[in-house]
């Protein structure tokens, strides 16, 4: 049973990029990253999933999407910004996009 007092954590940019590096690493790192990611309890999971899928490329992206059962048509940068604005996303998500090199 979930604890009703549990507050979902906003991912930090540092945590996001550390997980990204693990997803891009060797198979053992990827397996650990999947478990950490799944058990993280991050708030705004849809946005974090989208940002992580956007950050990863090729085989690591496919493995990430398979592991978390995430299916999508990868939107453009403008569509991601519009989605985040619609849901009044936290500033950290905009920072992550900027740090990945995606401007509005």
Task: Give the overall silhouette.
Answer: globular
| Counted beta strands | 0
Multimeric status of the protein: single chain
Q: Return residue spans where pLDDT drops below 50 for at least 5 consecutive residues.
A: 1-6
Q: Radius of gyration from the CA trace?
A: 14 Å
Average pLDDT rating: 84
Chain-wise SSE layout:
Layout: H1 13-23, H2 27-38, H3 45-55, H4 58-67, H5 77-86, H6 91-99
Helix pairs in contact: 1-2, 3-4
Describe this structure in words.
The longest helix is centred in the N-terminal third of the chain and has 12 residues, at 27-38. The protein has helices at residues 13-23, 27-38, 45-55, 58-67, 77-86, 91-99. The chain has one domain. It is globular, with a radius of gyration of 14 Å. The chain contains six helices and no strands. The protein is mainly α and 104 residues long.
Annotation keywords:
104 residues, 61% helix, globular, disordered N terminus
Quick rundown:
This protein is an all-alpha fold and 104 residues long. Helices cover 61% and strands 0% of the residues.
